Amino acid sequence: MKKIFAMIAIILINFIFQTSLYQFVSIFGVIPNISLILLVIFSMITNGIVGGSLGLLTGLLYDMMLQEIFGIYTLIYFVIGALIGSFSEELNRENYMLYGTATLLSTIFMHLSFFIILFFLKYRIDYSYYILGKIVLEIVLNTILTFFVLKFIVSLFSKLNYK
Questions:
Q1: Alpha carbon distance 65, 35 (integer Å)
Q2: pLDDT digits (tens, 9 = 90+) for 90-116
Q3: DSSP of the chain, one letter per residue?
Q4: 40-72 burial, b for 16+ CB within 10 Å, e for fewer?
Q5: Residue 70 and residue 126: Cα distance in Å, rounded?
Q6: pLDDT of amino acid 145
Q7: What is residue 119's predicted lDDT score, i.e. its pLDDT?
Q8: How many angstroms separate the CA atoms of 101 and 87, rounded?
Q9: pLDDT recorded at residue 162
Q10: pLDDT tens-digit profile of 20-71?
Q11: How far is it, in rounded angstroms, from Cα 44 to Cα 16?
Q12: How far is CA 110 from CA 76, 154, 155, in A?
């Protein structure tokens, strides 16, 4: 139970940093989505129920703070957390390449789902060719940063004696 509260605290602290401080650390105008990386890591560490719950929390935070249409990020992050969490029980959790692959696929799924939902809501998406380059760079950044964030989370949980 303490481990889940630690995960929630990390997500909340990261959300504050994601919406305020990470703007100053953009690489070629792209800010890596650390919240998505944390969701993938925590979903793979736990199960589908906890992963979906953490996805709901993360999505609700994004929808309340950033989005004019409420519920898009909540739905997307919930699906990502629940799917990865439900498959994580059969995977080798010590294989760090799986975390990177899951983050890569989750980033693609997040952006693709976001654009499909906006398309069906009849939102005009201007300059999608310009956005595509930034999405590809975000996919690469998220995948690379997954290994560093995972190393940090593993060392933090081992110091706190959470298994």
A1: 14
A2: 777 778 899 999 999 999 999 999 888
A3: -HHHHHHHHHHHHHHHHHHHTGGGG-BTTB---HHHHHHHHHHHHS-HHHHHHHHHHHHHHHHHHT-SSTTHHHHHHHHHHHHHHHHHTTS-TT-HHHHHHHHHHHHHHHHHHHHHHHHHTT---TTHHHHHHHHHHHHHHHHHHHHHHHHHHHHHHHHTT--
A4: bbbbbbbbbebbbbbbbbbbbbbbeeeeeeeeb
A5: 21
A6: 92
A7: 80
A8: 13
A9: 73
A10: 887 777 788 888 899 999 999 999 988 889 999 999 999 999 888 876 778 8
A11: 23
A12: 6, 25, 28
Per the document, the length of the chain is 163
Nearest Cα to Cα of residue 26 among 104, 112, 147, 141: 141
Structure tokens at 119: 């398309």
2-159 under CATH 1.10.1760, yes or no: yes
Q: Which residue has the tokens 């602290």?
A: 13
- Given pLDDT bands bounded at 50, 70 and 90, which one contains residue 88? confident
- Would you say residue 126 has pLDDT above 70? no
The domain segmentation of the chain, as residue ranges, is 2-159
Closest CA to 74 of 119, 41, 114, 14: 114
Tokens encoding 50: 């906890």
